[in-house]
Write a structure and sequence with these properties.
Helices cover about 60% and strands about 5% of the residues. The protein has about 525 residues and is mainly α. The protein has five domains: about 140 residues, Rossmann fold; about 60 residues, Helicase, Ruva Protein, domain 3 (Orthogonal Bundle), CATH 1.10.8; about 110 residues; about 60 residues, no CATH class; about 100 residues. The protein is elongated, with a radius of gyration of 47 Å.
Length: about 525
């Protein structure tokens, strides 16, 4: 048997640490036992401190219990079919309450667990039985709605001294010769994780029955990475520069850490001059983040980290010994709520920039003036018609819709204006030319009754020239052959006449020569 099972606590008194939390759980159980329904119990804390063990101890107080673990698929249908039905029905054996345990509710995500959070919300609302929910991360967004509906019990890590005493007890029971210094170092390295400490102790000491400091060299220190809230708590609660600087090295976007610090400064600091100094350091950090972003030189981040970490921590004169509820930045929730408004603003600005030929920022700066102008119904219609704004975009500048009377009157005016323009164009001859242009585009025959004869002849000549230019190469060849044949026939007709004249000249010349010879 594994030591984690062998030495698992059987009662609440055997559970290490969390004395205040155990009393709160006892009152919750006794209320249910006395038929007084309570809110679901939400046990929140880091892994390995005994949350699931506590739930199993509580289950012994009831007739039966149903558990849905993290290894199970926890989609909407599965949760409702298994836990959902049993949460509203009585036990088969008696009328006592049955306990329902849902482990790692903050780990419900992905396709396999689709709709799981919604199903848990419905079970909490409808359940007639005690319900225990278990989560690791107190600040997880997945349990935000569950926390409001539950009695939250925040479990703390087990203290090193308590864990050290427990490991010595195990060593005595198992007959292990253990170095007290080595056991204390193991308890320290476990950082409050009881399960991890017991498993490590068993692996090293179970076979050889000894445990020395040298044995700790083969194991690595437990990976206990700081969360954003751990570093935030260190910045606000500590005044030691080295401690604060170490706390700033976490795997998060540094600008996000700055937002968290800026949000929680007034929650922790009480004096006005301290708050002022802290925000001055935040503004300097923001400047260095801007330089890093613009220059692509991320070496500026180290200066920003010092200002928002050490600078903010040293802004206070003394540390405040009080509990401060740390929260995530409200700016994120504000941005998510106003996303629709910002999209609407950008749409209107884009239409204005196209129609008025202005920049996006200038268009947005004109919005306050538009709100004043849009108080007049007629002006509101004219501007919205020109900019082609829809109803939602008009509501950005005025709460009420434009009255139908105004819309109908304005549309009639538009029709009248169009008719008057047509009359003027017909008188000037512009409207006829426009019709002719449209008719040529659609390849329809023009209306010859409305065209002047001079314009007609000009058009005919143009059309003939266009036809001549559009002749194909074969037609041109045929015309050239015809010209050559005509020339040859003319030459043939002229040749016999020329030959007769030549013969006459020859006979005359011969006669003259004979006379001279004679």
């Amino acid at each position: 048997m594994l030591w984690t099972e062998k030495y698992r606590p059987k009662t609440l008194n055997e559970v290490l640490g969390n004395g205040k939390q155990k009393k709160e759980i006892e009152t919750w159980v006794s209320s249910w036992k006395n038929k007084i329904p309570q809110k679901p119990l939400l046990l929140v804390g880091p892994p390995g401190i005994g949350k699931t063990t506590l739930a199993h101890i509580i289950a012994k107080e009831f007739s039966e219990y149903i558990e849905l673990n993290a290894s199970d698929k926890r989609s909407y249908d599965i949760i409702m079919n298994t836990v959902g039905e049993s949460s509203t029905t009585r036990s088969f054996f008696n009328d006592d309450y049955k306990l329902i345990i849902l482990d790692e509710v903050d780990g419900i995500h992905g396709n396999d667990d689709r709709g799981g959070a919604r199903a848990i919300g419905q079970i909490i609302d409808k359940s007639k039985h005690p319900l225990i929910l278990i989560a690791n991360d107190f600040y997880s967004k997945r349990i935000a709605t569950i926390k409001n509906k539950s009695q939250v019990v925040k479990m703390q890590k087990v203290h090193t001294n308590s864990l050290n005493a427990f490991l010595k007890k195990i060593a005595h029971n198992e007959g292990i010769k253990a170095d007290p210094v080595a056991i204390k170092e193991l308890a320290k390295r476990s950082t409050g994780d009881v399960r991890s400490a017991i498993n490590t102790f068993e692996v090293i000491a179970d076979e050889k029955k000894t445990f020395e400091m040298e044995d700790l060299d083969i194991i690595s220190k437990k990976d206990d990475r700081l969360t954003i809230f751990d570093s935030l708590r260190t910045v606000l609660k500590s005044k030691t520069p080295k401690k604060v600087k170490d706390a700033m090295f976490i795997e998060e976007d540094p600008t996000l850490i700055m937002e968290y610090i800026a949000e929680n400064i007034p929650r922790e600091y009480e004096k006005k001059n301290e708050i002022k100094k802290a925000y001055e350091n935040i503004s300097k950090a923001d400047l260095y983040f801007g330089r890093a972003r613009n220059s692509r030189n991320y070496g500026y981040w180290k200066y920003a980290s010092d200002f928002m970490g050490i600078g903010v921590s040293l802004s206070k004169k003394d540390t405040y010994k009080k509990f401060t509820k740390l929260t995530s930045p409200t700016s994120f929730s504000y941005l998510s709520k106003t996303r629709g408004k910002r999209n609407l603003r950008d749409k209107i600005a884009e239409k204005m920039s196209k129609k008025l030929h202005i920049s996006h920022s200038v268009a947005i700066s004109m919005f306050p003036y538009f709100e004043i102008i849009f108080e007049n119904d007629e002006d509101a219609y004219d501007i919205s018609d020109f900019l082609e704004l829809d109803d939602d975009e008009i509501k950005r500048f005025r709460k009420k819709k434009i009255p139908k009377k105004v819309i109908n009157a304005k549309e009639k005016e538009k029709i009248k204006n169009r008719e008057e323009k047509k009359k003027i164009e017909i008188e000037k001859g512009i409207y006829i030319k426009k019709k002719q242009d449209t008719s040529t585009k659609t390849k329809k025959s023009p209306d010859t009754t409305q065209v002047k004869p001079e314009e007609k002849t000009k058009k005919d000549l143009k059309s003939q020239n266009e036809k001549n230019t559009k002749k194909t190469g074969k037609e041109k060849k045929k015309e050239l052959l015809k010209d050559i044949n005509e020339k040859n026939t003319k030459k043939a007709e002229e040749n016999p006449k020329k030959e007769k004249l030549k013969d006459r000249k020859k006979t005359e010349d011969n006669a003259q020569k004979s006379l001279f010879n004679f």
